[in-house]
Design a protein that fits this description.
This protein is an alpha+beta fold. The longest helix has 24 residues. Helix 4 packs antiparallel against helix 11 and helix 10 packs across helix 11. The protein has a five-stranded antiparallel sheet. The chain is built from 14 helices and five strands. It binds a DNA duplex through helix 5, helix 8, helix 11 and helix 12.
DNA sequence: GTCCAGGTCGCGC
DNA sequence: GCGCGACATGGA
């Protein structure tokens, strides 16, 4: 290991209930570069390029104490880490794990429903997100009209082609900056990263972020109503109804559901004995959850996934 | 080879 | 406001 690499540890103190592993592994994002999930160490690693240009390696883990939960960020870096850089890293990780989001009302609703829903108030429901909105939009675009394997491949090519390296690691790279994509031509970009027709959307998005035509702060403004926010999301090329609902979830608004193939198949299976249903009927199932629809849906989807995994392992161990 | 994926766009009506 | 074909790419 390079001796010039320094290590700085930073601790965060989430409000309980908080469950680090459930949050890290809450949906597919943990499996997309530049995230690396170390199963044994229960650690999320990723290269991060700070706004000042410094590239660092973050190893994010937890003490897993329910009473006094703590997130530990091990930062590997060159030279000294300035206070500003420390603060930026803390803010990014708080953002990823949604430490500033309040789930009390949702948990109260779950406890009120009783039964298996009470499990959620032990700290489930936080869905991992990326440090930047740009990363979350690119990734969401890359989940449309493609299977999960395709999403992983596209993001992998994207990160490996344009992400910055940390000199202490030969392989890992940061998520590309909008500037890095904006300064390459669409033609070159489309040859380096095979995203199909999505290439033009991602290239345009990068240009809009780079020239500040798109301001991420607008999307995080608590004052903006959810319908207005959805309208803004739909203005982005490549974002339709499904992607807007996904992005609303990532932005902390849970009242829209992504009516895609997964949602339709799931609701049909769970509530309509596998028969086809209209989106309207399917959506009606979650109406009672009000502003928490996405979290309720996601929990049930996760439940079914776990049951299927159990069945699989029990049938192979016979 | 054919079909289609955690859809979206742009067109014509 | 709705229906419908086109869209890149690779895996099933």
């Amino acid at each position: 290991m390079d001796e010039r690499i320094k290590t700085t540890n930073i601790a965060l103190h989430p409000e309980p209930p908080f469950n680090f592993e459930f949050t890290a592994y809450s949906h597919g994002w943990v499996l997309l570069l530049p995230n690396h999930w170390d199963k044994e160490a229960k650690t999320l690693r990723r290269i991060e390029r700070l706004s000042g240009g410094k590239v660092v390696l973050l190893s994010i883990s937890s003490n897993t104490s329910p009473e006094n939960p703590r997130i530990i960020i091990e930062v590997r870096h060159h030279e000294t880490l300035s206070k500003m850089e420390r603060n930026e890293i803390m803010a990014s990780v708080r953002h990823m794990f949604r430490l500033d989001e309040d789930f009390q009302k949702f948990y109260a609703l779950c406890d009120q429903r009783g039964d298996r829903w009470t499990k959620l108030s032990q700290g489930l429901g936080r869905l991992l997100r990326s440090p930047s909105l740009f990363e979350d939009i690119v990734k969401t675009i890359c989940t449309t009209n493609i299977q999960w394997g395709g999403t992983k491949r596209m993001i992998e090519e994207f990160v490996n082609a344009y992400g910055e390296k940390f000199s202490g690691d030969p392989v890992m790279r940061a998520f590309p900056t909008p500037e890095a994509i904006a300064k390459t031509t669409l033609n070159t970009f489309s040859k380096k990263v095979r995203m199909g027709y999505r290439t033009a959307y991602v290239h345009l998005l990068a240009k809009q972020f780079a020239n500040e035509e798109m301001n991420p702060n607008v999307f995080f403004d608590p004052e903006i109503s959810t319908p207005d926010l959805k309208k803004k999301l739909l203005e982005i090329k490549g974002i339709g109804n499904y992607a807007a609902a996904t992005l609303l979830m990532l932005l902390g608004r849970y009242n829209e559901l992504p009516t895609d193939t997964v949602f339709r198949e799931f609701v049909s299976k769970k509530y309509f004995k596998g028969k086809k249903v209209s989106d309207k009927k399917a959506l009606a199932i979650y109406k009672k959850w009000g502003q928490w629809k996405y979290l309720a849906y996601w929990y049930e989807l996760w439940e079914m996934y776990n049951e299927q995994q159990k069945e699989k392992s029990s049938s192979t161990h016979k």
